[in-house]
């Protein structure tokens, strides 16, 4: 206490500060605040005790009802999860033919599935699979066991005879172990799900210890009992433990039978103790479950009495404590002011008339620093201004009103009253032709350079101007002119500037420039529309000219911009060349196709639409060839890629490498396989019909191809041409007849498909001797 007072007086003397009035006011405030608390405590104790007891009892009953609904929801979730298992593909009709010895992977999969099922819900203790076919057996997560005894099999088969496909039972047979619980509750689901002739069942045994823990939530106090039983009384469970039913459990069950309603709360006296009893029902898969919860009334109302006494005690103590703590609280209340003084003065012993003198000096110091920060902020204004105009032209301020936009532009140094605005779009082309000057990925650098060139040119010519870098070879320009500026002067002035900017960019960057000029407007809110019109007008650029200036107001007046003639004949030739695998010829035709499009309608829009139409035709040819375009081109949106290309050279390269080459390569690979099959069929046909009148034309017609295609494929696959292969077959068969038979030479020739005179000549050509000499030589 003395140390606190010494510290207090030290601070007061240091800063010449007197806090007596502050302490007296604080003590009076604390006393006034404590007296109402004392009055309220007494009122609560005498007037609200009875009402609180009744309200607590009602809240207890509502709490029991809510927790019972929670248990009902958990059981319903377990049933829903369990019912889905029967429709798993692992439990379909294939299990009827399951061979345990050979289908090892399927058996392992069943083990894993049962293990996953067992861990799917905390109430599950064990999940087993019973199969009646092909042999009765029981699966669990560790092993399987065949059921050979009829007496052991009967309880399992009785499960399949139940009418419902999913049901609860306490008659499921269990293997006797030291931990096994008699009369356990199980959930049975016949498999396969939805079948009228089930051949097995999934059985999930409930962990009764976890179920008891859940039942104990219906008795939130340490005292009381909860019973869960079926409607017919065939199964019941007490929160006291497995197989433990006390006198209170039996008495509660007998008292419940005296009531007829489905849900009710009542007071029940047993062994001189009054219980608050609540009971209700669950509907579980066609059966009725009943819960009965009983809690001693004294455990419910005991907190009310205790709280009331504590309120009275605390209220009395608070009055005394307030008198003692007022001395300490005054110091605590002053501590923020003390910390602020130390923070501002640096605790260097500054002599001040009072604390507020220090605050005044520090305020002046902070004002100077604020001015410094303001100057730094001024340096950042160009970046903020650039961000504002970029959002403005892209339409992000669509929700703002005209006056709000004008005010924002004024904040960035723009005059908006009695002004008209014009938008210009600069599009750079010819980047693909600058090989060696720029590399791939320098698009942003090139666009940034062009934006700087335009900004330097406009800085000395116009009063209000904003250059906007859209990247990807696009630069926007927003100009502002007085309201009374003549339209003819405005048009000439902008045209002259565009010519100068175009020539400068041509000289420095060696790239072509297309400029689109929008109409003028007097509304700031129309500026995004001006830029959109100017951006759309760029597609009307003439591909045959290098530098162009397009005025959007003239586009609607011109009717020839969109006129073009589509080269349908070339389109058919291109598709035909691609189908025949002629890649180079197809690329040359595509280049000629682009030239004809440019000659008839040389605007970028006309060429781009024509190329998109050609892409659609080639894609249709892919479908006709039996290929899936999505798989062939890797799921790429070809139309979107093509629409992003602006220059004819880029379009031609894209068609060559991204479309034609991919299609032709896949087509050739498929044709090789088809031709191999066709040649194998022709060879088989020659071996079976060599004695008939065969020719290349007849075989080609038989297998639906041209003689040229068949001849080339036959030579490529078999290594010899068609006629030599047929001749070899006939000569080999003739040699066999000459060696092994005595038939005449004329008949041998007929049997191998030759006339007699031609047979002698061709035989001697291949063997070097006549047929007669061959026969005599083999006989000798």
UniProtKB/TrEMBL annotation:
Per its UniProt record, what PROSITE patterns does this chain match? Answer: HTH_ARAC_FAMILY_1, HTH_ARAC_FAMILY_2
Instruction: Look up the coiled coil feature and give its residue ranges.
Output: none
Record-linked InterPro entries: CdaR_GGDEF, Homeodomain-like_sf, HTH_AraC, HTH_AraC-typ_CS
The answer to whether the entry has keyword Glycoprotein is no
Tell me the domain of life.
Answer: Bacteria
Q: Which UniProt keywords apply?
A: DNA-binding, Membrane, Transcription, Transcription regulation, Transmembrane, Transmembrane helix
Query: What residue ranges are annotated as transmembrane?
Result: 21-48, 310-329
Keyword Repeat annotated: no
Domain HTH araC/xylS-type residues, every copy:
680-777
The identity of this protein, by name, is AraC family transcriptional regulator
Q: Which organism is it from?
A: Paenibacillus baimaensis
